[in-house]
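Thread: Newbie trying to understand structure tokens

Hi all, I'm a second-year student working on a class project, and my supervisor (Dr. K.) asked me to get a predicted structure for one chain before our next meeting. I've only ever worked with sequences, so writing a 3D structure as a token string is new to me. If someone could post the tokens and maybe explain what I'm looking at, I'd be very grateful. Here's the chain:
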Amino acid sequence: MSLIRKNINGIRFIFLTTLIIGFTASYVFAKDTCVDCHSDEKFRVQSLKLYVYYNNWKDSIHDMEGVKCFNCHGGNPTKTDKDASHKENFSSLRANDKESLKAIPLRCGKCHKEIFKSFTVSKHYKALTDKVTGPNCVTCHDSMNTQVYRSTNIAEGCGACHNEKTKNKPEVVKTAESILHDINVSTAYKGWVLTSFYDKESREAEELNKRLKDIANSWHKFDFTGTGEKTAALLNDLKSTVKSGLAGRGTKKTDK
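---
Reply by user tm_fold:
Sure, no problem. This is what the structure looks like when written as tokens:
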């Protein structure tokens, strides 16, 4: 019995040691020196911009989706030395640097492939790559804690270039406001329709999501004629669904 107990204790020791080594290794592997360094409160004084960047990223959609500093900026998040961590294709993507401005859509496009593909056929992208005068992803959406444009953002955002003073198609501001308003209303209607009239996993729901995705891609081409027509058609269909559903209560999912 004594020998058996010793063997059991030996097995337990090996098992626990393996677990400890495994947990330690996984912790070291998961360690991110970019986050460890830039989360330091010292940056509030030493570099307020870096401090704000980090806090905008923290708990943002990018943070929640696991997009870390090195995914966009390069560098090595396993190195503890500042110079070593900032090597290996590191780029700060500075807003006043021409090459950085051109590189931003390429970085965003790694994840947002369809949106990027749509953007590359736009006049904005051509102006950005040819003369570095066009907007890039960050111009409209920011970079860390990204924002989705609303119709109330258009005048300030698009109006910076498209206005009476520049004579650069000032009329597109009102057109864009109108289209984006309808897109936002369509998104709200879609939520209502999927909650009250369609099963969220149904063919109809899949079709709605597909149409909205197509509209988003069209919007990033800045093809306002095509985008406006697609959005108006979708909004009309959604309103008809709600109207007919309310008229015949039996079609409501909640009444089944």
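A couple of things are worth pointing out once you decode it. Confidence is low (pLDDT under 50) at residues 18-30. The longest helix spans residues 2-30. Feel free to ask follow-ups in this thread.
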